[in-house]
Every structure is written in C-alpha cells, then in structure tokens.
Amino acid sequence: MANPQYHLRVYPDKSTKSRDRKSCMDLVVQGDRSLPLNLMVVWSQGQRITE
C-alpha cells in the first residue's frame, strides 16, 4: 500500500430497515493544479489491498 494513513468505513443507512440497500457516497478531492492527485476507492471484503 502506498499511503495507508486513511481508513474509510461505510456503514448501512440507519433510516432504512433493509440491509440490501446500498449506501450513498460522495468523494471530493481538492488540491493545487500543479499537484497530481490519485484517489482509489476499492471494496476488499475485509482483505488488504496492494498495488
């Protein structure tokens, strides 16, 4: 893993009784125009992800 300092957890929506409903997610990445940014969001089913 290149930069493992962040950990994202997504919990089911508490306003619905159905566990089959998918969670909504918005991602915003901001930075200087001269700075290259890379954002990777993956579902690993609890396993470690490596590049």
The biggest sheet, with number of strands, parallel, antiparallel or mixed sense and barrel status, is: none
What general outline do the C-alpha atoms trace?
flat
Could you name the ranges where pLDDT drops below 50 across 5 or more consecutive residues? none
Instruction: Give me the number of helical elements.
Output: 0
**Kindly, what is the distance between the CA atoms of the first and last residues, rounded to a whole number of angstroms?**
6 Å
Instruction: Look at the structure and give the mean pLDDT.
Output: 72
Identify the quaternary structure here. Answer: single chain
Rg of Cα set: 15 Å
Strand content: under 5%
What structural category characterises the helix and strand content? little secondary structure
Number of strands: 0
Overall helicity: under 10%
Please give a handful of descriptors for the protein shown.
51 residues; little secondary structure
Describe this structure in words.
By secondary structure, this protein is mostly loops. It is 0% helix and 0% strand.
In terms of topology, how is this protein built?
Layout: no helix or strand
Biased composition (Basic and acidic residues): 10-22
Region (Disordered): 1-22
